[in-house]
Design a protein that fits this description.
Length: 416
């Protein structure tokens, strides 16, 4: 049987090359069908390559090498499965070697954890090392029951809540090793990844090509927080996940886009293109950089469907499963710096879109209400927009419509 070639898969018409950032296997390993083999970084997305058949793998390129779409980067010998054949002698007194391993080599000592055939994404393996949780004992929500980063985080949260702190007399596990720089090393240098280079180029281009301006407002989050507290338990029972703030803002943005359609338009040369659909991008921070998966047809979705799509898109982005199709076609973007504690910012437009909404941290502040000073949970919101196509009045009106929708969610039901 001829060796099976492992090629860099097509990623979309606009992607012709990338960097093979990491191998998940070693040269000569026995791999399973559909096992993750490598991580590929391009200027748009990071994806994983998997094995199309089981067998012994021979690597053809090194980590960090630039590769072309369709390039052969390894081969798999499907005739070598690693299982001993009936004719293979087994010596009880000595080590037993797999069929693909030379007896002249010392046997490989496997670290504790999942079986060698149970390969997990890098994020899962990292969490396993940090938390001591065996991924094999975690119920996976990924394809074919595969354990994902979110599953490990949930298991870690459950473990920390259920396990009391160890007594002082109990031996403590060794801390994870920390990389220590040499005493005289004042700088470290590493090459930018294609994705980071593309992010940098797009941000600079957005600043140079658009007449960008930012306007601000503040939102009293009391009504939304009360609504979530009142119905959260029932929502979780029915849908299996919590209702967050983002779905309220998605609803509010769609409502505001309908009221101010200029925000839902873009410039194409000397032409203004008006969009009559509502595919909204939600910015997600990953280890590789910021990605903006798109939630499609938000005007037709209920809150539960929005939350499910947001959670699924975020998980795909963080686990390196995002595709180019997941990132394309958005007409507007929402970014939430508040998850990291940001109080105020001026987000940068995601071209060719004409505007982006920035959410921020919720802080209790004294505000004047009906002639009285009261303390309310307040959030600053910011709209950055392209002044070439959006006037100041339209931008301010849009932001006010979002504010009204969040402060009085019943407006969304009445479309006012």
């Amino acid at each position: 049987m001829p060796n099976l070639e492992v090629k860099i898969p097509p990623m979309g018409e606009s992607i012709s090359s990338g960097v093979l950032a990491k191998w998940h296997v070693k040269n000569g390993d026995i791999v399973k069908k559909d096992q993750p083999l490598f991580e590929l970084e391009t200027d748009k997305i990071t994806s994983e390559g998997t094995a199309e058949a089981a067998g012994k793998i021979t690597l053809g390129v090194e980590e960090g090498a630039e590769v072309k779409i369709g390039q052969v980067v390894a081969t798999i010998d499907a005739s070598a499965t690693g299982a001993p054949t009936p004719s293979s002698p087994v010596t009880p007194a000595g080590p037993v070697f797999p069929a693909a391993q030379s007896p002249a080599m010392p046997p490989t000592t496997l670290p504790p954890g999942p079986a060698p055939t149970e390969i997990h994404p890098p994020s899962v393996r990292r969490l396993a090392a940090e938390t001591g949780i065996d991924p094999a004992k975690v119920s996976g929500t990924g394809k074919a029951g595969r354990v994902m980063k979110g599953d490990m985080l949930a298991a870690a949260e459950t473990k920390s809540a259920a396990t009391p702190p160890p007594a002082a007399s109990q031996p403590q596990p060794a801390a994870a090793p920390v990389a220590v720089r040499a005493a005289n090393e004042r700088q470290t240098r590493r090459k930018m990844t294609p994705l980071r280079q593309k992010i940098a180029e797009r941000l600079v281009a957005a600043q140079h090509e658009a007449a960008m301006l930012t306007t601000f407002n503040e939102v009293d989050m009391s009504a939304v927080m009360a609504l979530r507290a009142k119905y959260q338990e029932e929502f979780v029972k029915k849908n299996g996940l919590k209702i967050g703030f983002m779905s309220f803002f998605l609803k509010g943005v769609v409502h505001a886009l309908k009221e101010v359609p200029a925000i839902n338009a873009q410039i194409d040369g000397d032409t203004i293109v008006e969009n009559n659909y509502y595919d909204i991008g939600v910015a997600v921070s990953t280890d590789k950089g910021l990605m903006v998966p798109v939630v499609r047809d938000c005007d037709t979705l209920g809150m539960a469907d929005m939350e499910k799509q947001i959670a699924a898109a975020a998980a795909k982005a963080r686990d390196g499963k995002i595709t180019l199709a997941d990132l394309e076609g958005g007409v507007f973007t929402i970014t939430n710096g508040g998850t990291f504690g940001s109080l105020l910012s001026t987000p940068i437009i995601n071209p060719p879109q004409s505007a982006i909404l920035g959410m921020h941290a919720i802080n209790e502040r004294p505000v004047a209400l009906n002639g009285q000073v009261v303390v309310r949970p307040m959030m600053y919101i910011a709209l950055s927009y392209d002044h070439r196509i959006v006037d100041g009045k339209q931008a301010v009106t849009f932001l006010v419509k979002v504010k009204q929708a969040i402060e009085d969610p019943t407006r969304l039901l009445l479309s006012i």
